[in-house]
Design brief:
The chain is of the alpha+beta class. It has a single domain, classed as Deoxyribonuclease I, Chain A, CATH 3.60.10. The chain is built from three helices and seven strands, in the order αβααββββββ. The strands form three sheets. It has a three-stranded antiparallel beta sheet with strand order 1-5-2, with no helix packed on it. A two-stranded antiparallel sheet has the order 3-4. A two-stranded antiparallel ribbon has the order 6-7.
Length: about 120
């Protein structure tokens, strides 16, 4: 798996990394069955590879920053839009912004600034 190779390189070189991805794998504890139904309904055949990728991330010390639903319908709530980092201490905030632009909400994270900013 290519993702595993890059994560290994990042870890070996002690690099900071933020991964933003729509995996269509729900990580809400209360909605796993609903997420499986959603995945089957939308014919997403990569589910096993996606779950393997999530396991690789967590095994290598990545933390999921988003913990609220990122997609809400009249019958389901799911967290399928992910933001992972291998250095949570450098993130000042993260979250979900509810929006009517798409069927998915906006996810974000803000990185802490290192040092002073020069002003012109």
């Amino acid at each position: 798996m290519v993702g595993h190779y890059y994560i290994h390189l990042i870890k070996m070189n002690n690099c900071e990394c933020i991964i933003v991805h729509n995996l269509y794998v729900c990580v809400l504890q209360t909605d796993r069955k609903l997420s499986r139904r959603y995945v089957r309904k939308n014919h997403i055949g990569l589910r096993k590879k996606q779950i393997t990728f999530l396991k690789i991330l967590t095994t290598n010390g990545y933390t999921q920053l988003i913990n609220k639903p990122t997609r809400v319908t009249s019958t389901t709530e799911s967290l399928i839009d992910h933001i992972y980092t291998n250095n949570k201490n450098k993130i000042s905030q993260s979250g979900v912004i509810e929006s009517g632009i798409s069927d998915h909400f906006i996810t974000f994270c803000t990185r802490k600034n290192k040092g002073n900013i020069r002003q012109a």
